[in-house]
Each structure stands twice: as structure tokens, then as C-alpha cells.
Amino acid sequence: MQEHKRNKRNYSEIVEELLKYLPSVGSQEVLSSDCVGEILSEDIILKENYPNCFISKYDGYLCKGNSPFKLIKEIYPKDELNFSIEEGCCVFLATGSAVKEIKEELKFFKIEDVDVKDSYIIPIADDTKNNWIKPGSELKSGEKIFSRGKKISYKDKFALELLNIRFVKVFKRLNLSIINTGSELVNESDEPNVTPLSSWIIAPIAQFDGFNVIHSGPIADEEYLLEEILEENLNSDIILFIGSTGKGKRDLIRGVLNKKANPIFEIFNTPVGKNSYAYLCENKLILGFSGIIQASVALYYLILRNLIFKQRKLPVENLADFCDFLEKPEIGRSNWYKSENIESGRIILKKCNFLNSEFLGFYFDEKLFIQRTNFFNQVF
After folding, report:
1. Is 5 inside any structural domain?
2. 177 shares a domain with 258
3. 127 shares its domain with 203
4. If you count Cβ atoms within 10 Å of the first and of the last residue's Cβ in the chain, which end, N or C, has fewer?
5. Cβ(336)–Cβ(326) under 8 Å?
6. Do residue 123 and residue 242 come from a single domain?
7. In what residue span(s) does the MoaB/Mog domain sit (predicted)?
8. pLDDT of the chain along its 380 residues, tens only?
């Protein structure tokens, strides 16, 4: 545990210290049909050629011997491949049909290049030489399809099913409990409650980033309620309290944690949030962020998002190389931006207020990061 210091801490110091208290990275095998939104824990390598057979480009007839040819079978996509063609016979192949091998004595005639009389096929033009999509012409066995760290989209899922990849290995999600605190959030009078916007915004972003989000609360500023909610969420890997980080008489959570948990950072001040904290209770990481919406969302990006990406040894998204700025954030600060326009393939970012933001800019290890916020599309 680190001794308490009142001075501001840099984000990399906080993240590196908190990494020590996370569980080891886990992975699990899931069906490709259920993997949308999951993050790959290993590369996906193709185990066989794609396609693995000859695929017909056109509707037509595969013939052996001399005309006329007796039609003996019709083959359509996904039909069984086991068939043989005798001398003087042919099979109909629909576009997309598969054939295991093409022998030299076999000829293919497109459907418009034959006459059909009863059950006999009579070619009226030369055979087609370029009918076949050959095995491995799209992808070779041993090629990397997707890289470790890729988030699987619906498009990726369809590709996996097309390639007959039924199972993939993905990272196990860390359970993240998000708890808004404050009696104003659970007002029992006739006056409307204050909306817990911080958790509404952070939760879908965290779920997208690979956490399994557990909503708990909001909870009133009562010591016994805070103790109960803490106990209820100790099955999570990380518990995030939002709000009540100050020193007012209703800011009780720190007193509860001092009785039941050990401080990692009893207080850490950062440029975007004062009096944040990190504790350890029964080997579970407990964090506290400011209840100010802008600060809690920024701290999520700066600390929690970096934490899970660093734990998995994955690069964090950074759009800085694709953006031009009308005003960059200062070292140690974070700014909210919106897109003005695009020139020469670069996004022009203009500083804006939180409610209009499309992007968040901040420094981490003195390197500028630009990330999409996306939260309004997911929440409202």
C-alpha cells in the first residue's frame, strides 16, 4: 500500500499501482454465434483453405464424355459433395455449388450455352474454362483472420460462420459494480430526484470496453445503507462509487471504507477530479470518483479504461494522428471536443462543452490521446 500524499498524482502512476490488485487475465471459449461485442484473447488462425472446394460461378452443367449428355443429378449450394459422373452423363450445378475436385475429362457448359431435350443436354457453344473459384483462392490455411484484442462485430460474426469457425476464445469480463451515492438521488418527497447521469453514461461505455456492468443503487447517504451496498457487491472485481468524495457531513463512504477496507490511495487528486480514492476490501478493488458528471466520465477514460486495456496488454484507441485541433488540451488537463469538419482526411476538432462533445482529449504518460465519447448515442 502506498502512503497518502496530498499532491496531484499522474494517471499512469495510479493505473500502474491499481493493476497490482486486479485478478489475472482470464479467457473463455464461446460460440461464434454468441460472440458479438466480445474481445478476442488470441488470434484466430484459419485451419483450412477457404473455399475448401471448387465453387461454381455460374448455373450450368458439368459433363463427361461426348454430347448428348444425360442429366442424372442437380446440385445446389450446401448439398452433399458425394456424387460421380459416368461417361455420357452430366449434373446440373447451381451458382455457388461445391465440387471436391475437377478432373481433366470434365467440361462445364453454362446454362445459356446448351439446349435441353427431355432429360438430355446438348451444348451449342464451347465449354466455359473460367467457371471455378479454386480452393484457397480467397484465404489460405494458416492465415490470420482476426487479431487478439479485436472486438467482434455482427459483420465479423457472419465471417466466422461463413468460415465454419464455431468457437472463439475471448477475454473473461471483469465484473464492475457502479454505485451512485447521494440522498438527492433517492429523494422520497414529492420533489423530483436528481438523475444519476454519471452511471447512465459510464455503464454502456464500460460494457462496450469489456466490463460486465452491474448497476447497484443509487443509494442514500446513510452509513448502514452504504455498508449493506458494499457487502452486496463484494462479488464484483471492481466497485465504483460515484459521488460523496468530499468532506461534508453527508460524505460518509470514506468513513465506511476506513472501517472495512485498506487504502491504496486514501485520497488522490488529479486535474479532473479531487478527493478520489482507491481501497481494497476482501481483495476487491474499490474506487471513488467525483459526482460531477464531466469529472467522473473523464476519470473513467483516464483510469478504468486504461486499467482494463493495460491488464489485457492491448493498445488503447488513439485518434490523435487523425485530428487537427483549434485548441489542444494542456499537459495534465482534459478537454471535450466536437468535430467542425474534415479537411484532407483529418478531423478538425473544436473545444466545446461537455454536453456537445463527440471526443475527449487527454494526456497519459505525457502523450496526447483522443478518444470518441459515443455515450450520447448509447444512452439517450
Report:
1. no
2. yes
3. no
4. C
5. no
6. no
7. 177-310
8. 444 444 567 788 889 999 999 999 999 999 999 999 999 999 999 999 999 899 999 999 999 999 999 999 999 998 877 778 999 999 999 999 998 888 889 999 999 999 999 899 999 999 998 999 999 999 999 999 999 999 999 999 999 998 989 999 999 999 999 988 877 666 665 555 567 778 888 888 899 899 999 987 777 778 888 888 889 999 999 999 988 776 766 677 888 888 888 989 888 777 676 788 899 999 999 998 888 888 888 889 889 999 999 999 998 888 998 999 988 888 778 889 999 888 888 999 999 988 788 899 988 878 899 998 865 544 33
Grid cell in block for residue 379: 444512452
Q: Return the C-alpha cell found at 128.
A: 466455359
Cell of 235: 462479488
CA distance 324 to 322: 7
Look at residues 196, 187, 146, 193 and name the one whose alpha carbon lies nearest to residue 38.
146
Residues 283 and 223 placed together within one structural domain of the fold: yes
Nearest Cα residue to 314 out of 72, 27, 17, 14: 27
Torsion of CA 293, 298, 299, 304, to 10 degrees: 120
Domain boundary at 311, 336, 368, which?
Answer: 311
Residue 310, CA atoms < 13 Å, CB-side half-sphere: 20
- Domain of 123? 54-133
Query: Do 104 and 129 belong together in one domain?
Result: yes
Residue 87 shares a structural domain with residue 150: no
pTM for this entry: 0.79
Question: What letter represents residue 10's amino acid?
Answer: N
Q: Are residues 176 and 307 in the same domain?
A: yes
138, part of any domain: no
Query: In the chain, how many domains are there?
Result: 4
Does any domain span residue 1?
Answer: no
Quick one: which of 355, 356, 359 has its CA closest to 368?
Answer: 359
In a domain, 6, yes or no: no
